[in-house]
Specification:
The complex is a heterodimer of chains A (262) and B (330). In chain A, a hairpin with a 5-residue loop joins strand 11 and strand 12. Chain A is globular. In chain A, the strands form three sheets. Chain A has a six-stranded mixed beta sheet, sandwiched between helices. A four-stranded antiparallel beta sheet of chain A has the order 2-1-4-5, with helices on one face. Chain A has a two-stranded antiparallel sheet with strand order 11-12. Helices cover 32% and strands 27% of the residues of chain A. Chain B has 330 residues and is mainly α. Chain B has one domain: ABC transporter involved in vitamin B12 uptake, BtuC (Orthogonal Bundle). Chain B has 14 helices and no strands. Classes of the chains: A alpha/beta (262), B mainly alpha (330).
Chain lengths: 262, 330
């Protein structure tokens, strides 16, 4: 299992600081969920790990700096699922998932039998075998999401980054997708960092939440510690009640100021 | 299979020469091991070997190069409507050719090399080079879209200069016009030797990139996250495709539509992966242009219908059909 350390990581777009001085350590096998309003810097943080955003500071994987790695080697360590993945409509699911094997194939090389067997194995485990020769453009939203996760799993990287993995899904498929990620995390010992908007789901699935606001890390801890009525009101500007269920689940319930009893 | 049939067809049809069924026999007769009586006279053999065959071979080279370049451009720019002339090859080559026509071609007949293909080739390369320099200088991060926009600007500029020059030399309009529409009628083995090296180098490079072209389809960000060096792949593919395109354009003129419709036909027939698209575009592009070259020879006998007219005439309805089927599947 692999750890991920951030020390004073900052991301700038032009003159705008999207992320400042982010320091944190994600323990091996931990699921860290980044929360915060739009523009808080969640995506910038994920993109900096994936090598898509220039950053200051240092990101280390198991203690060794990520910036020293070639893009191929980085892709062997970190798999990235973007918020809205580009799915070439006419590509089959199998052709799409095999793209995840790129980090292991030389520049002008081609996939080996081993690569294809990994792809078929991943498709099987994610219940996608029936879709493997279907064009991805013909799949439903939930199936598409599974195919994208399959590509990331085929990458066999110990760190999985998910940017809003469930934003396009209905409540059932949200749960399915997150269950799948959690199951894969257990099986493969993955370290997961995700950005999520649904605070209840974020608290339900992750080990730890980290709240970002305007590029700064505000607070980090368990769902019960981070999801507090005052905190949400201050940083999201939202009126919400926080309900602690008996099983430890923290539920965030929005309410309308006028119609509420408070 | 299609390629073999089209080569035979290309060798068999023409206004002069032997009866059609004797041609395959004559070709077989000239293979080293076989000896057949084909009944083809030496004069007729000259027509087959020195007039029709170079034309067929050149058509196959031009067709496969344009199709392959088109497919590759569509891949690296993630735009299905892109053709190999996107970054200014056509306009640059057109301008180069126009300049040669206006600068009194008769004076150049004593030159060692024909200046027409040379200046078209240089013009095409130069236009893409300017596009590239401008596109990357102003582009910064999103180099793909700015490159395309720079190509549009360079094309407009070169076309404007060409129009201006033509206005002042109306006597060569006819020649330039017929060059622009493309021609294979004057093909010789010399033309074939001229473009063959470029076509081989360019096709080899593009062929090696077929897996990377698949990765480019998921967008720059995701391709980078998958460990691909996106910008390097794009530059190398553009250079290879441009080199090949400029070379074939220099000898054949601007043959339109091949670079768009052949890759799309391949996609419809055989799937969307570049593993398949690249080799099949080569074969189908060659067959398509050989076949498209045939009606041009006989339609307006004894004069020739420009091949650009034939490809567009076949290409436009095909394109509409393609759009219709695409709509149907949605």
């Amino acid at each position: 299992m692999t750890s991920l350390q951030f020390s004073e990581v900052g991301v700038r777009y032009g003159r705008h600081d999207a992320l400042s001085n982010f320091t944190d350590t994600v323990k091996p096998g931990e699921w860290l969920c980044l929360i915060g309003p739009n523009g808080a810097g969640k995506s910038s943080l994920l993109r900096s790990v994936a090598g898509l955003a220039k950053h200051s500071g240092e990101i280390r994987v198991d203690g060794s700096p990520l910036r020293m790695r070639s893009s191929k080697r980085r892709a062997q360590l970190v798999a990235y699922v973007p918020q809205s993945p580009v799915l070439p409509d006419d590509m089959t699911a199998r052709e799409y998932v095999v793209l995840g094997r790129n980090p292991f194939i030389s520049h002008f090389g081609s996939e080996t039998k081993h690569d294809w067997s990994i792809v078929d194995d991943v498709l099987k485990r994610l219940d996608l075998t029936d879709f493997s020769h279907r064009a991805v453009g013909t799949l439903s939203g939930g199936e598409k999401q599974r195919v994208v996760i399959a590509r990331a799993i085929a990458q066999e990287a110990p760190i999985l980054l998910l940017d809003e993995p469930t934003s396009a899904l209905d409540i059932g498929h949200q749960q399915q997708a997150l269950e799948l990620v959690d199951q894969l995390r257990q099986e493969h010992g993955l370290t997961v960092v995700s950005a999520m908007h649904d605070l209840t789901l974020a608290g339900l699935y992750s080990d730890r939440l980290c709240l970002l606001h305007q590029g700064y890390r505000v607070v980090s801890g368990t769902a019960a510690e981070v999801l507090r009525q005052e905190t949400l009101a201050e940083f999201y500007g939202v009126s919400a009640r926080v309900h602690h269920a008996e099983d430890g689940t923290v539920v965030v319930i929005p309410y309308r100021q006028g119609s509420s009893g408070n | 299979m299609l390629a073999v049939v089209s080569v035979l067809l290309g060798a068999m049809v023409g206004p002069a020469g032997p009866t059609w069924w004797r041609v395959p026999l004559a070709l077989l007769d000239h293979l080293p091991v076989l000896s057949l009586h084909s009944g083809v006279t030496p004069r007729e053999w000259t027509i087959i070997w020195d007039i029709r065959m170079p034309r067929v071979v050149l058509a196959s080279l031009v067709g496969s190069m344009l199709s392959l370049s088109g497919a590759s451009y569509q891949g690296v720019f993630r735009n299905p409507l892109v053709d190999p002339y996107l970054l200014g090859v056509a306009a640059g080559a057109g301008l180069g050719a126009t300049l040669v026509f206006t600068l009194n071609r008769t004076g150049s007949s004593t030159w060692i090399i024909d200046p027409l293909p040379l200046s078209a080739f240089v013009g095409g390369l130069l236009a893409v080079f300017v596009t590239y320099v401008v596109g990357t200088a102003f582009g910064g991060q999103k180099s793909a879209s700015t490159l395309v926009l720079a190509g549009v600007a360079v094309t407009a500029l070169a076309t404007a200069v060409q129009t201006f020059v033509l206005q002042r030399h109306t006597d060569v309009v006819r020649q330039v016009y017929s060059w622009i529409l493309g021609r294979l009628s004057s093909a010789t083995w010399g033309d074939v030797r001229l473009v063959l090296p470029y076509v081989i180098v360019s096709s080899t490079v593009l062929f090696l990139h077929r897996r990377l072209l698949d990765i480019m389809r998921v967008g720059d960000d995701e391709a980078t996250a998958l460990g691909a060096s996106v910008n390097r792949v794009r530059i190398v593919v553009v250079i290879a495709a441009t080199l090949g395109t400029s070379a074939v354009v220099a000898v054949s003129g601007l043959i339109g539509f091949v670079g768009i419709i052949v890759p799309h036909a391949v996609r419809l027939l055989a799937g969307a992966s570049y593993r398949v698209i690249v080799p099949l575009s080569l074969l189908m592009g060659a067959s398509f242009l050989i076949i498209a070259d045939i009606p041009g020879r006989v339609l307006q006998n004894p004069s020739e219908t420009p091949i650009g007219v034939v490809t567009a005439f076949l290409g436009a309805p095909f394109f509409l059909l393609l759009l219709r089927t695409k709509q149907g599947t949605r």
